[in-house]
């Protein structure tokens, strides 16, 4: 016997199918479905992690670019100084980054100092690495009688390389994910360890603002303008630019679990509090550079190799 389906039934089925399609389309991206992970190269007997590759790539690319910069007229240093900076700044990044993480984010590591050496377990602070790098620059500048501010100008142009690679490595590791994202964020992701909540991929926000955009700005200033002749202009731009980018992204980045209460009590995350003095320092050097007269070609002659 032939049975007819009522229009109401057809409408109900169509509506349910449409709802299911919309639900599937609105489903958040799952990080584990992207086919990525913390291991960049696995040979069985040796595994190279993205985080290690990011540090290695940032340092090598920064050294290569610094070597190109010091060959330009007006360099405050010679290649031999760039070589020294490469060595001491690398130590400053690693030691300062680890100690900074322990001081600002995980003081419990000091209960067992051996844990500070476990770099493979993660935990590096940009602000700590920055302080370590500044100390390295100060040491090389003092020993070689170089202009500290001008050396900082040149180094600051190279820093965003490492920031870009480092934040991309954070994303590849599925770590340092963002806060809960609303329904209007189609690129929201569910990260391992972050529960079933769709979150902002704040690592990519940081890679874009702290890394790519800041890198482009500084490269243009150095290669296309006379910014190198204004001591403090480049390092001021970097410091202020990074601080503003980090302060902004922190609104979308989930605070470290051990500092969640701190962020709720103070209104800002630890990362934001640490960028406030950076804003003041960056603005000071920027205004100082713009107010003062630029160096003349004779006064800014290259250091002989």
TrEMBL record:
Group of enzyme by EC: transferase
Pathways per UniProt: Protein modification; lipoprotein biosynthesis (diacylglyceryl transfer)
Signal peptide: 1-26
Sample GO molecular function, one term: phosphatidylglycerol-prolipoprotein diacylglyceryl transferase activity
Cellular component terms per the entry's GO annotation: plasma membrane
NCBIfam families linked: lgt
Function recorded in the entry: Catalyzes the transfer of the diacylglyceryl group from phosphatidylglycerol to the sulfhydryl group of the N-terminal cysteine of a prolipoprotein, the first step in the formation of mature lipoproteins.
Name under which the protein is recorded: Phosphatidylglycerol--prolipoprotein diacylglyceryl transferase
Organism: Novosphingobium hassiacum
